Here is the input.
Amino acid sequence: MGPPRTTSPVAGQNQRGDPSAAEAARAFDQLPFGMLLVDAAGAIRHANPACAELLGHAPADLTRQTLADLIHPSDDSALDLQFERLVRGEISSLHGEHRFSHADESPLWVQVGARSFESADDTSLFVLQLANIETHKKAEEALIYTEKRWRFALQSARQGVWDYDYRTDSIFYSDGWRRIRGYSPDEWVDGATAAWHSRIHPDDLPVVKANIDRQEQSDDTFEGLEYRERRKDGSYVWILSRGRAVEWTDAGEPLRTIGTDTDITHLKMVEQELDREKERLRIILSSVADGMISVNAEGLVDFMNAAAEQLTGVSAAAARGEPIEAIFRLQDHTSGAPMDCPVRSSLAQGVPIRVEDDAELISHDGTRRDIRCTAAPVLGSADDVLGAVLIFQDMTQSRALQRQLAHTASHDPLTDLTNRAAFEKALARTIAEARETGKPSCLIFIDLDHFKPVNDTAGHAAGDALLKRVAQTIRDCCRSHDTVARIGGDEFAVILDCCPEENGLQVGQKIVRAISALAFDWAGKTHRVSASAGLTIITPEPPSAIGFLGEADAACYAAKAEGRGRIISYGEAIAGQP
Here is the structure.
């Protein structure tokens, strides 16, 4: 047991413990993923080698450019506008997929995360990260290397021997003991207990006095005394002192104790540097916009950065030691079914596991976020799995936009029914399924009767409102998996999957009756319309979607010719021709 460690401010840090821009730059240079320090004007203050390698530039070339220079001309993601919002404080962080310019002028897609960086010199800077899933592995290797240096320092340390006699309160010091403290081998050193205490650093003396009895009693659980002792020149050296009693009185009181003193100053310097490196790494990881979680070989959480805390709704302190699946819970966006934990899969298989699409992270406050994540194993020197690292990004906004664009591309903007282009694709799929399974489906073509007078007398706004009512009426008459589309001004079509002709006619009659029953009120006047419909059976032949649509249209025309407000099948229409 040693004295309590004293701490002093790390050079380049302010009272909050923030690193300076220069310290951050040096730390970034050791990271295997791309990092940029950018000021509020977009000027690149520092680029680490990994970033330079990624973009094909020399680091010095990058620092002569701005963030806008790195954005490829073909990029339309408005990264520069988002960065301006970050600078103004409108958003706390940003991330997304953007195209940067490689040195050969080719576009390069990168995942960019950014947030503000608090520096000791109060410079307004921002950290940009190009995500790399090897981050934690590289960081761990750096820590292992530092720990090896620490062990090497212990093995190479000089030692001195001392022999204390309680009867005379005197102590023998070896030549090595003197050299540690800057004395010549034959120089006299006062060996009295009071003289020894006078050389111990005042901050360490209470701990030494409180634990010296454990050394005298040869306590096997006692690791030794760690303290600072003044050298001859007035400087202090860190000492690790271990000793045991070798002679006792008949009553069991110690008469003589022998031990060794080891100069652990270098070890202490390494230890302090390690603490500083860990603090720098903590600050860097806290500044990264992506969520990061590391687990041990058993899948228990041992680290979470600030972004991971925010996304999961669990603090790092509460998550430490908990199973990863209790903290990081995924479900399928479409079905809502729980998904396998990618970290567990990575630990079991020993390979990286990527989850790209349709994954939702369920926060502990119930919030659901679309995410993309990668879990990678951390391997030891013998390729044994030491743990795993999980990196994940919040994709909620980008996926919502993608879904919105996909919906807009396939749906009619007025009625929100399937549009004609998407309907023709659905019809082609139904024809292919009929060819594979032999099961028929029905196609119904619907044309409104008396719609034009409503449009002409009440106006287009009334016509649009009426079309919405009709669209919802048709939708209500069909099954949830049937395809209902608006394919023209007042023309609609329905695909009834795996539906025989008799049932299809029943559904068509239901639609016609429901539309005829509509009472549409507008500007104090009630308007009524009806509908004519034609039905055809989708069979393996003919293979043309246009052909089936033409048959249903022809049947609808026959229904109009017979008085409107009814449905006729294509076979009935053909049979009724002269």
Q: What stands out?
A: Confidence is low (pLDDT under 50) at residues 1-17, 132-138, 150-157. The chain has four domains: 21-132, 158-263, 290-400, 411-575. The two ends are 110 Å apart (CA to CA). Residues 265-287 form the longest helix (23 residues).
